[in-house]
Specification:
The chain is an alpha/beta fold. It contains twelve helices and 14 strands. It has three domains: 106 residues, OB fold (Dihydrolipoamide Acetyltransferase, E2P) (Beta Barrel); 182 residues, Rossmann fold, CATH 3.40.50; 56 residues, Probable gtpase engc, domain 3 (Ribonucleotide Reductase Protein R1, domain 1). The strands form two sheets. It has a five-stranded mixed barrel with strand order 1-2-3-5-4. The two termini are 37 Å apart. Bound molecules: guanosine-5'-triphosphate, magnesium ion and zinc ion.
């Protein structure tokens, strides 16, 4: 018993030391204010109930506050409430109970005991959206990247070669499955030039449809290019260009998150939107054009005259596990046809009476859209088949 208590004390001291080495919140000017964030009605009602439970467990009413998690530094949350921004740790009640890790964007019932710098998160309130990805293979789990965001901006870099539209389609399926809206930013347009930009917009429209919200940017251009020519090439395809295009995606009151591989230019874009260098950016490797995971914290930045965007570390893998609903939302036309296939488990590859293939033949379907759908559907079937039966998705 004494041993356990000692271990806990050691842990507490270490945690406190770690927390003290985090950036001082008072110096962070890009943090959103409480007024810029809004809990839903359901969350406010849940907060009232959480307050009642906390009081029952011994908290004083005036110590309790509604807050939003605006940063996670090495797992340590920072919380904004009506009259303060503070670092918080988890109450023992939360760590003991059905403990779910807090994410940036989470609304919480927090407690600020008088005379303490550090607050306590008593409860995480129900999420309106939960941007999560699968990690860890067939024994894996869902990892929440951010909570309660309205919009996910998938950032994919352009280059000399055609854009990786399969990766964008995969991201789209995950995003729509998580209950958020989707937009795509094609970054580094300077590397593709006008012709490349036009080519990649066409490819993306073919795969994800012409109604996709799309912006072309080159916030960190390293090559002297004719920006106006690139803007014109985008405009000819009905696509917005530049930081203003991104700002229009995220109006005041909107909370978005940028999602993309390391090195895609997420932090560079956010710095441009902020008008100053707030976020660290890093060079990509020559050999494979991949980034070095420069961003390690997850944090909200409030944009001047616009909404809030969460900057995230880049993600290498985005496995598809149980995102069937997202697939149907991204490809509603194909999913609709699939419902008429003769076999319920039709793989749309060789079966007789396959409505998808018949329709594709009749309508002269865009080949790449169907191919993208089939590849993602196939991957999902395979991942489901190898999933550990004890894992709940
Ligand atoms: N040519 C070109 N390079 C860019 C552009 N935007 C960003 N870069 C470069 O791409 C590299 C990666 O940029 P970051 O903004 O750090 O990328 P990130 O997506 O935040 O990466 P992680 O934080 O690792 O996930 C840096 O060297 C940037 O200078 C652009 O518009 N054009
Ligand atoms: Mg970054
Ligand atoms: Zn079929």
């Amino acid at each position: 018993m004494a041993k356990k208590a000692k271990a806990r004390r050691v842990r507490e001291v270490r945690d406190r030391r770690n927390a003290e080495s985090l950036p001082a919140l008072s110096t962070l000017t890009e943090l959103p204010t409480f007024a810029q964030l809004a809990a839903s009605e359901r969350q406010r009602a849940a907060y009232e109930q959480a307050v009642a439970r906390a009081i029952e467990a011994g908290a004083a009413q005036d110590e309790l506050t509604l807050g939003c998690v605006v940063r996670l530094d090495r797992g340590y949350p920072a919380v904004v409430c009506a009259d303060a921004t503070f670092r918080a740790e988890f109450s023992t009640r939360l760590t003991k109970g059905s403990f779910s890790r807090v994410a940036v964007g989470d609304w919480v019932c927090a407690r600020r005991p008088a005379g303490h710098e550090m607050g306590l998160i008593e409860e995480i309130l129900p999420r309106e959206s939960d941007i999560a990805r699968w990690r860890g293979g067939n024994r894996g789990e869902r990892q929440t990247l951010a909570a309660n965001v309205d919009l996910v901006i998938v950032v994919q870099q352009l280059g000399e070669r055609e854009v990786d539209f399969a990766r964008i389609a995969r991201s789209a399926v995950i995003v729509r499955d998580c209950g958020a809206e989707l937009a795509v930013v094609l970054s580094k347009a300077d590397r593709a030039g006008e012709a490349g930009v036009a080519r990649d917009i066409d490819a993306l429209h073919e795969v994800l449809g012409p109604t996709l919200r799309l912006v072309v940017t080159m916030a960190g251009a390293t090559q002297a290019v004719d920006a106006q020519a690139i803007a014109r090439a985008a405009a000819e395809k009905g696509v917005a260009f530049g930081e203003d295009g991104v700002r229009a995606l995220v109006p005041e009151g909107c909370v978005a998150i940028v999602l993309g591989e390391s090195g895609a230019g997420k932090s560079t874009l956010l710095n441009a939107l902020l008008g100053r260098v707030v976020l660290e950016t890093g060079a990509v490797r020559e050999a494979d054009d991949a980034g070095r995971h420069t961003t390690v914290a997850r944090r909200m930045v409030a944009l001047p005259n616009a909404g809030i965007i969460v900057d995230e570390p880049g993600l290498r893998s985005l496995p598809l596990v149980g995102h069937e609903r997202g697939l149907a939302l991204v490809f509603p036309d194909i999913a609709h046809e699939a419902a008429a296939c003769r076999f319920r488990d039709c793989t749309q590859t060789h079966e007789p009476g396959c409505a998808v293939r018949e329709h594709a033949r009749d309508e002269g379907y865009e080949g790449r859209r169907l191919d993208a759908y089939l590849a993602l559907a196939y991957e999902m079937r395979t991942s489901r088949a190898v999933l550990d039966p004890d894992i709940v998705i």
